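RECORD TYPE: inverse folding
INPUT: structure tokens
STRUCTURE:
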């Protein structure tokens, strides 16, 4: 008989994870409480751009819906009653600097109220260290009257995929399983082996695994902040930071990330605040990591101010200028505009009085300043900000001739060859 799995949350993690299990022979019930997500998915619509063996996630979704191996519902209670394996991928957003648990808690409560004896719960969301042991487990036990490790089973299994590589990385990324008892560990491993060929590493501390997931993200945040500081140093030295980093990275133990317009998406910007929430409980300070986070948060402002300074050298200024923006997503090729520095840069430009026209072929969300084509965004613009690589080979150089005279080009992605620019263009690379 086919294994049935319920996955709470059908977003960037939950949907590809569900479809990956469906492709590997399971019946999957995807639960999402957002009526828009539920409605779109039940009609076979997703704007995610994941691919599996060159087949788009939208095609996979349609096919699995057709076969009945995947279905989406908004009634989590019903889904839990129909399955013995429940995976939670509902996130904990940060409001200001504070974790907002409501969605995550609601999912845990629905599971706790409806879970049957013998069931397994896997938490795959990224969480504040201690959440599974001290928050999720008590909710499950109190609401079900069942005991973890005896009647029901619980493990923390962080999701480590990068958006855009989900199907590949479910299969190839080593998986961490944190669980306090042997039965939970073994049951969790059986589920993970369904769609993973990679190594499984066990820990009997769920909190250790949760902390490791947060610091994986944090090291990227700090690494990117380092690259930004080095970029300022290289600029002042008249050096190309991309070349300098490439040279340094030839050392087998060095891996410096490249600078860009900032850090966005769900994972990396939240990581510091997840650790800080726990650190405050422990009365521990995290000054270096805090500085790195603030450095990255400040980048959109830096880019907007840099654009203004470059315009001023041309006798213009942001106020009243037309600014074309290429890229709204949080990273290259991505449809994900959550906490996107590109969106924040647009807001900074707008608040300085600029007229912003932004183009991104991958982002489905509407913005008042979004245009249908890159041509219309660049037509007559005083400056062009390249914030993302929209597709392989993306290069807007040939459209610069349609910009205003003496245009300013700001390249945060190392895409433009300055030798190909018209001589009157002023060029700045991060
Ligand atoms: N996006 C990534 O690349 C990535 C990678 C690794 C880990 N993570 C972690 O995975 C988790 C999910 O991230 P995401 O990017 O998929 O988020 P997402 O916002 O895309 O998806 C979460 C979904 O959960 C739904 N939801 C909210 N409350 C619910 C409830 N009570 N029951 C059912 N569904 C509910 C939301 O409507 C949303 O569609 C987060 O903890 C994130 O940090 C994300």
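DESIGNED SEQUENCE:
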């Amino acid at each position: 008989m086919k294994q049935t799995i319920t996955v709470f949350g059908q977003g960037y993690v939950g949907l590809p994870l569900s479809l990956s299990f469906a492709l590997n022979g399971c019946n999957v019930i995807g639960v999402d409480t957002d009526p828009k997500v539920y409605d779109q998915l039940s009609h076979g619509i997703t704007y995610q751009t994941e691919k599996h063996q060159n087949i788009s996630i939208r095609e996979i979704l349609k096919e699995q819906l057709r076969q009945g191996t995947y279905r989406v519902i908004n009634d989590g209670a019903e889904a839990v009653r129909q399955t013995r394996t429940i995976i939670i991928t509902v996130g904990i957003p940060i409001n200001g600097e504070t974790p907002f648990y409501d969605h995550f808690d609601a999912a845990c409560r629905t599971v706790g109220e409806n879970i049957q004896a013998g069931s397994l719960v896997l938490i795959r969301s990224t969480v504040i260290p201690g959440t599974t042991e001290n928050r999720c487990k008590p909710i499950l036990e109190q609401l079900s009257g069942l005991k973890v490790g005896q009647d029901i089973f619980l493990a923390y299994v962080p999701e480590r995929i990068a958006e855009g590589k989900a199907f590949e990385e479910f299969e190839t990324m080593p998986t961490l399983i944190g669980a306090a008892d042997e039965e939970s560990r073994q049951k969790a491993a059986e589920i993970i082996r369904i769609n993973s060929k990679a190594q499984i590493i066990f820990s009997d501390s769920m909190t250790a695994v949760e902390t490791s997931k947060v610091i994986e993200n944090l090291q990227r945040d700090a690494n990117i902040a380092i690259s930004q500081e080095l970029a300022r140093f290289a600029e002042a030295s008249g050096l190309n930071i991309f070349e300098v980093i490439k040279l340094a990275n030839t050392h087998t133990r060095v891996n410096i990330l490249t600078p860009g317009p900032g850090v966005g998406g769900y994972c990396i910007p939240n990581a510091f605040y997840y650790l800080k929430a726990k650190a405050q409980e422990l009365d521990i300070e995290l000054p270096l990591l805090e500085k790195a986070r603030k450095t990255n948060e400040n980048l959109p402002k830096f880019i907007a101010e840099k654009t203004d300074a470059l315009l001023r050298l041309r006798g213009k200024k942001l106020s009243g200028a037309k600014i074309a923006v290429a890229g709204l997503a949080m990273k290259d090729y991505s449809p994900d505009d959550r906490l996107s520095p590109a969106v924040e840069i647009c807001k900074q430009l707008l608040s300085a009085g600029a007229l912003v026209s932004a183009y991104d072929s991958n982002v489905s969300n509407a913005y008042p300043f979004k245009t249908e084509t890159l041509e219309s965004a660049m037509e007559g613009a005083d400056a062009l900000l390249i914030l993302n690589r929209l597709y392989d080979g993306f290069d807007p150089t040939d459209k610069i001739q349609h910009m205003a005279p003496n245009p300013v080009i700001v390249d945060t992605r190392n895409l433009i060859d300055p030798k190909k620019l018209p001589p009157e263009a002023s060029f700045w690379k991060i």
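NOTES: The first strand starts at residue 4 and ends at 8.
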